[in-house]
Amino acid sequence: VLKGGNGLRKAYLANTRFSKDLDFSCEHSVDPAILVDELNRICAFVEHHAEVRFSPDKTVVKKKDLEIGIDAVEARLYFKGFYGEESLTLKAQLDITQFEKIDLPIQARPLLHPYSDNDSCAAIVRCQRIEEILASKLTTLLHRRKAIDLFDLLYSIIFTHEFPVERLLVVSTFLKKSIFGPQPALAKNQLLAVPLDDFRPLWSSVVAPVRSLFTFDYVLSNFRSLIEMLFGMLAPAAGATA
Question: CA-CA distance, 237 to 242, in Å (whole number)?
Answer without folding.
Answer: 9
